[in-house]
Structure formats: C-alpha cells, structure tokens
Write a structure and sequence with these properties.
By secondary structure, this protein is mainly alpha-helical. It contains five helices and no strands. The chain has a single domain, classed as Helix Hairpins (Orthogonal Bundle), CATH 1.10.287.3510. Helix 1 runs antiparallel to helix 2 and helix 2 packs antiparallel against helix 4. It is elongated.
Length: about 140
C-alpha cells in the first residue's frame, strides 16, 4: 500500500512540475497576449496546488484542521493527523490576488486590441517602434 501511495504522489508532483514548465513556455514563447494570460493563469493555479500539497500529510487517516474538543487525547490525535491550515490560508489569499491581477491584465489586453487592432506582441513591438520613430508617442 505504501509503494502505491508513493507512486501516486510521485506522479502527481511530476505532472504538476510538467504543467509549470508548459505554462512557463507559454508565457515566454507565445506571441499572443491572450495565450500568455491563459498560461499565466495555469501557472498560478498550479503553484497554488503545489502549496496546498506542501501542507498535506502523507498519513492515514488525515483529519481537517478542526479541534473537536479540548481533551488531551483529542489534542494529541489532532496534532498527529491534522492537515496544516497555513498553506490553505496562503492559497486563498493568492487566489484572490491572482484573480485581480488577471482581470487587470485582461483589461489591458482589451485596451491594446482596441488601440492597435492586434494582440500579437511582435506586431505591437513593430508598431511601437514605428510610433517612436515618427515621434507620435
């Protein structure tokens, strides 16, 4: 049973690392700003999941971080089986901040499309250099 759980955790961690690498590729190499935003969202969600997994215990049974009563035996059981709630609190904060950042970036992409007619970073660079040469910016 222990070997199976170790294998499952290895597969989960490796798939999350692969997802992070693919999303970093999307952020760095895709010229479309909308695709960059999607890759950034995937990256932040994967990073949040990795943080939640850091607080998870590889024991069975795993208990939620709620203390049922104040007896000494309940406290000992709680300390040995409860999941760490701190990474969960960090992830809730990161999700809210990430959503706000994504909305701001999406608004900027919409405005860029409205002003320049494209969301291709290469074309925007060419357009920007043309505007700078002509002195219109």
């Amino acid at each position: 049973m222990n070997e199976v759980m170790t294998f499952i955790w290895a597969v989960i961690v490796l798939s999350l690392i692969a997802t992070v690498m693919i999303s970093l590729y999307g952020i760095a190499r895709r010229p479309n700003l909308t695709k960059k935003l999607i890759a950034l969202t995937i990256f932040t969600d994967t990073a949040n999941l990795l943080v939640v997994l850091l607080g998870y215990r590889l024991i069975y049974p795993v208990a939620p971080p709620v203390l049922p009563n104040l007896e000494k035996s309940a406290l000992e059981s709680f300390l040995s089986t409860a999941v760490d709630p701190l990474p969960q609190a960090f992830v809730i904060t990161a999700v809210v901040i990430g959503m706000a950042v994504n909305v701001l970036i999406a608004f900027a992409i919409i405005q860029i499309y409205r002003l320049y007619g494209t969301v291709d970073a290469r074309k925007l660079g060419e357009e920007q250099s043309t505007l700078l040469r002509e002195g219109r910016v």
